[in-house]
Each structure stands twice: as C-alpha cells, then as structure tokens.
Design brief:
The complex is a heterodimer of chains A (394) and B (272). With 394 residues, chain A is of the alpha+beta class. Chain A has two domains: 47 residues; 330 residues, Porin, CATH 2.40.160. Chain A contains four helices and 16 strands. In chain A, helix 1 runs antiparallel to helix 2. The relative contact order of chain A is 0.10. Chain B has 272 residues and is an alpha/beta fold. Chain B has two domains: 137 residues, D-Maltodextrin-Binding Protein, domain 2; 130 residues, D-Maltodextrin-Binding Protein, domain 2. In chain B, 40% of the residues lie in helices and 22% in strands. Chain B contains ten helices and 13 strands. In chain B, the strands form two sheets. In chain B, strands 1, 2, 3, 4, 6, 7, 8, 9, 12 and 13 form a ten-stranded mixed beta sheet that branches. In chain B, strands 5-10-11 form a three-stranded mixed beta sheet. In chain B, helix 2 runs antiparallel to helix 10 and helix 3 packs parallel to helix 4. The longest helix of chain B has 18 residues. The chains are: A alpha+beta (394), B alpha/beta (272). Chains A and B meet through strand 10, strand 11, strand 13 and strand 14 of A and helix 1 and helix 4 of B.
Chain lengths: 394, 272
C-alpha cells in the first residue's frame, strides 16, 4: 500500500517537477511564480489526497471479501479390482474434492458460500449468513445451509485437514451429507463453546435437503477447550416418515455422541495427538428422496481412535482404528442374515508431507475387516485401498 | 507400487531442504522495527543465514502461521482461542508462545495539548465517542480527533480488550495502517489522540495513564516492568509447534543478552 501511495505521489508530482524545470530559466520573477507554483502544488496534493481517500474506501471494501479453496486430485489403488468378479471397481484417478469458498465479512454479519466442483458435478455445500447479536456479546446466529453441529469428525474438522483423508465410517452413516439446512445459535464463553440449531435433518446429499416431515430436527454440540485437552458432547433428535408403509409410520431419528482430543509434546520429533469419538444413533439418513433408504428404526453405533504424530515441521503420520455397526439387533442366527456383515472394523494409516504453504502430499491405506460375521461372510473382505493425493490450497 | 512409495519417501525427505532456505517472520507492526534489527544483527553474526521480516499486523502474522506461510508470527497480543484451535485442527499440534519483549501501549497527543494524564475510563469514553471535546477532560475547547489502527493490528485488539472492554470504537475514529502513521497524524492535528508502541513516540506527547492506585504512570521501563503502567503488555513470537532448526536458533538469539540489548535500543523493554 505504501509503495502504491509513493508511486501515485511520484506520478502525480512528476508533471509539477517537470514544469518547474521548464520554468527554471525564468528566474527573474521568483516571488510571483513561486506563489503560483506552491498553490498549484497544493492543488495537486489535495487532488491526490482525494483520489487516495476514494481508493482507500474501495480497497477496504474489497478486503472484506475473501476467497479460499482447495482441490484434491488423487489416484486410488483398489484391492477389490483384483478379486471381485463381474464388473469390479477399477484403479483410477479421481478428484475427491474441489472446493471454492467465498466469505464476506461485514461488521455485524458474515456471508459464506462454498461450492464443491468435481467431475461428477457441482454441488452447493454451504450457503449461510452468520449474524452477530449486538447486545449479547459472543453469540451469533447461523442461518442457511451449514455444517451439522455434531461431533468432532464432522462438526469441527475441515475435509482439507483430515488425518486419514476420509471421515470415520459412522460419519457416512449417521451424519450423511455433513451439511444441512437450518438455523443455529452459536457462542463461546471462556473455554466453553456451543452450537445448537433446528435443521431439516436430511443432510445436503441424496434427498438434497428435502425434509419429509413437518417436524424439524434439533442438532447441537457443547464443547470445551482447555488447550491440550479438548472435547465435547453432541445430540440430535428428530423424526422421519416411512411413506412406503401403509400407515405412514413415523420413526425417531436420534444420535448421541462424545469426542475427546489430547495434544501432547511427548517426543522430540514433534507434537502427538490422540483423538477419539463415539456415536450412537437410530435411523440413519438414506440416499433417496423423501426419506427413501433411511434405515428406519435401526440402532447402530460407531467409534474411532486416531493417533497422529508430527515428524519435524513438514511430515505427519496418522493411524486410525475405526469400528461401525449399522444394526445392533441383527440376529446372526436367522437364515436370512447369513452372509451379512454385522460389524466392520477398519485399520488405516496415512503419511502427509507439506511440500509448501499450499501444497500437501498424502498417501493413505485402508484395511477393512469384518469382525463378526455370518457363515459365508469373509473375515477379510479384500477391499483394501491405497490412495495417493496431492492437495493444493489457496 | 514399491517404486511409487520410494519416490514419495524421497520427496518427503527433500521437503525440509526446499522449505528452510530462510527463516520467515511476519506479523505485528509494533514489533517490525525490533524484528528487523534482530534479523540484521543475527545475520551479521551468522553469515550465510537468512531471516526475512515483514509486518502487516499481528492478525496477519498469525493467519500466515495458520496457513503455513511463515515460521514465526510476531504478535503484540495473545493468540485468540479460535486461532489456537485452527492450528490444532490443521496440524494436530499446540502452538508455542514465546514472550520476547515488553511494551507499554502509549497514548499520544499533540505537543500543544496541555493534557498530561487520563484515566483508563476517560480513554474508554473518548474512544467509544462519549467524550468528544478536550474540555470534557479538563483541556481546551477543541474537538477530539481519534486515530486508531486497522483491525488486523494486535495493538488495536489489545486496546479494544483492555481499554474499550470489548466495546466498539467510535465510528469517527480514523484507522491508519501503522503506528508511524498514527504518530504522524497526531503530530499534525492539534486535537488528535492516538495509541501505539512506546518506541514510536517522536514529535508527539505521551500521556500518563492513571493506574489502579490512583497514581498516573508514564510508559517508562520502570513502570512497564513493575506492571504499574496500566497498559503494559508482553510482545510475543509464536511458532506452529516447538521451535526447531533455524527458527529456534533465531528465537534463541532474540532471547539472548545480545538480542535483549537491542530491545532496549529500539525503545522497548527486555523480558529478562
């Protein structure tokens, strides 16, 4: 900015200097011409000051608008491509996420729009306004399409910073879509923060935020931040209707969760983080419109533990143990359930290398295992995958 | 597959060499002169080593630390909880806070202004716009012209927290891009008042500020060190995790007797 002002002053004053040079021989009438030159110079400076004031107004307006985003091109190697018969999935290149986010900050409000553009299409992830409450310091209201305020994996973490590149299995089941339409109150008082709101309850994917019942879902998280220890408890209560049943039966959609994170300086090579989360839930979100595909009334649970170790300032290693059971009441003794998976465990590991301030290279390996099984379900489903991803961020 | 892993391992090993060409220091405008003097002296003492210093404000420096575009962030305020959380979420580490000097936020008025001291409460009323004329605080019948810093400045945040108690600045307050600009504006404007680091007060008059004991204190070394000056504050360096390598060597120098001598020369007060 200082350079810009200096350049403008230099350009603005150059004609004056040239005019003075050209007028130099006429030094026989110094008093009068000096007065004229001073007046002209003052006029030039005043004009420049006016222009600068206008520019300052324009620049300060532009400073309120910020753009950010990232792309995650990756190559996926799939074990299933070697074992599955018929038309198996194949190794290949993908763009996992292609995000573009615009944020406009005014004094009392913030406006956010985020798009996700990948070869499979362009989706709206966020479109909300956040209003600060002027008479209640520390409180704000978020209205629109926003992240579900539930848990750590979905409610807190950006998908650009995931330790294992992908969220835990329970997130894809109970918190499908990750974003939802609604209005929420959020605030922070010392080490305690919270966000609670009323949402449609169907997530942004699949049914595209369409709610199939008149009752809205209440979702919220209460968190605590003690520096090296952070954590929270989350809850969700709502309803969904089964329009395929003759009675249009109504089902509860419920989730309860708890999460804890520890940040430690144990090793000389870098910081260590230990994170864990547990989610219990009833009636997961389906992929169809109007509630179709919802796991109506089924109770399940999932949890994960992540150990992340920094190695110097540029490298990070992470391992995760992830468990998910979509239906705790599935009777393994029934003939109809033979071959069905009861609980899936997954071990995964990742290595991240920060190549520059906006470039990160990651490799990750995922090894799903079926812990409890029917007679014909394999203990190793042979669905390992290996991912190499380059993330460019701005 | 093995070849790919080997290539990735080689790339990972090469990264530190690519990334550590110079130590980058960014942030507080209050600290920029001090940091530049530190960098010059450090590079003179250690030929071949390079330290790049830029200002922009404490908020800008901390944002750069979060985004990974600087190794050290200078800040004239403490890092906020949400800023610490961003570092934790992005890198799974706790940021490290290192106090490197002490400062007193000085109040500047024009040299022609007969006022010599104010209470924190009076400063609060002046900066939120409740008091608009110097005669309301015992001065001449003259309009008070407020000068402030941009909201990316740590001094802006410190002043808002400790003097305004979280209230908003008066809309009439003119924001200027640096402490030098504030001093310059106050030196020219008879009714002007501004704030900034004690090291910048040239051509303006520094006000004493009334402490909790009812006594007025100037932002002197003695009063800042003893904590009697009500607007005393530490100046910090922040790193993403525990300092390591060249960044650690530079910070160690800043905290050394030689580095702390420069603190005094620049006009701030040593931490030790």
């Amino acid at each position: 900015m200082n350079r810009l002002i200096a350049a403008i002053l230099a350009v603005g004053l150059a004609p004056v200097a040239l005019a003075q040079e050209a007028a130099a021989p006429a030094s026989s009438a110094p008093a009068e011409s000096s007065e004229v030159d001073t007046a002209a110079l003052k006029g030039q400076v005043d004009a420049l000051a006016e222009q600068l004031a206008e520019m300052k107004t324009d620049v300060s307006g532009l400073k309120k608008l910020k753009f950010s985003g990232y792309v995650q091109p990756r190559f996926g190697w799939l074990e299933a491509a070697r074992y599955e018969k018929g038309a198996p999935q194949r190794d290949g290149f993908h763009v996992r996420r292609g995000r573009f986010k615009a944020v406009y900050d005014s004094d009392l409000a913030q406006y956010v729009v985020q798009l996700d553009a990948t070869p499979s299409g362009v989706g709206l992830k966020e479109a909300y306004a956040s209003f600060k409450l002027p008479f209640l310091k520390g409180l704000a209201i978020d209205a629109g399409l926003q992240l579900m305020p539930f848990g750590y994996d979905v409610g807190i973490r950006s998908s650009a910073d995931l330790d294992l590149l992908e969220r835990a299995m329970f997130a894809g089941h109970f918190l499908k879509g990750e974003y939802d339409l609604g209005v929420a109150l959020k605030g922070r008082y010392g080490p305690v923060d919270f966000k609670v709101g009323v949402f449609n309850g169907n997530g942004v994917d699949g049914a595209a935020g369409k709610d199939n019942d008149q009752r809205k879902d209440v979702i919220g998280r209460l968190g605590v931040d003690l520096g090296m220890i952070t954590g929270g408890v989350s809850g969700w209560y709502g309803k969904t209707i089964d329009y395929t049943s003759a009675t249009n039966a109504t089902y509860d959609r419920v989730r309860l969760g708890a999460d804890l994170q520890l940040y430690l300086d144990l090793l000389p090579v870098g910081g260590t983080a230990l994170k864990g989360e547990y989610v219990w839930g009833k009636t997961a979100i389906g992929t169809g419109a109007g509630g179709a595909g919802d796991s109506l009334g089924l109770i399940g649970y999932g949890w994960d533990v992540i150990l992340t170790q920094n190695v110097g300032p540029w490298n990070q290693v992470a391992v995760r143990y992830d468990t998910f059971n979509p239906n705790v009441k599935l009777d393994r003794n029934l003939a109809a359930n033979q071959g069905k998976v009861f609980v899936t465990d997954e071990v995964s590991a990742a290595l991240h290398t920060i190549l520059s301030s906006n470039l990160k290279l990651s490799v990750a390996w995922y090894h799903p295992m079926n812990r409890e099984k029917g007679d014909t379900a394999p203990s190793d489903p042979k669905k390992d995958s290996f991912v190499a991803q380059l993330q460019a961020k701005f | 597959m093995k070849r790919m892993l080997l290539a990735l391992a080689a790339l990972a090993a090469a990264v530190p060499a690519l990334a550590s060409a110079a130590v980058t220091v960014k942030g507080s405008d209050t600290m920029v002169i001090l940091a530049q003097r530190w960098a010059e002296d450090y590079m003179n003492r250690n030929p071949g080593k390079k330290v790049q210093v830029t200002g922009g404000g404490s908020g800008t420096g901390i944002a750069a630390l979060i985004n990974g575009t600087t190794e050290i962030a200078n800040a004239s305020r403490e890092m906020k909880a949400d800023e610490k959380a961003k570092i934790r979420e992005r890198y799974s580490v706790l940021p490290t806070e290192i106090p490197v000097a002490q400062d007193g936020v000085a109040l500047y008025v024009n040299e022609s202004n007969p006022i010599s001291q104010l209470t924190v409460d009076q400063l609060h009323q002046i900066y939120v716009g409740d008091l608009t004329n110097w005669k309301q605080v015992g001065g001449p019948d003259q309009r008070i012209v407020l000068y402030s810093r941009e909201n990316s400045s740590g001094t802006y945040v410190f002043f808002k927290e400790h003097v305004l108690k979280g209230d908003d600045y008066a809309p009439a307050a003119q924001t200027l891009p640096g402490t030098a600009a504030v001093v310059n504006a106050v030196a020219k404007e008879k009714g002007g008042i501004g704030y900034g680091g004690a090291a910048y007060a040239k051509g303006v008059k520094e006000l004493k500020v009334v402490g909790k004991d009812g006594q007025a204190y100037a932002p002197s070394a003695e009063n800042v060190k003893s904590g009697k000056y009500p607007l005393a504050r530490p100046l910090f360096m922040y790193t993403r995790a525990k300092p390591a390598g060249e960044a650690k060597a530079f910070i160690d120098y800043c905290l050394s007797p030689e580095g702390q001598q420069l603190v005094t020369k620049v006009g701030y007060f040593p931490i030790k």
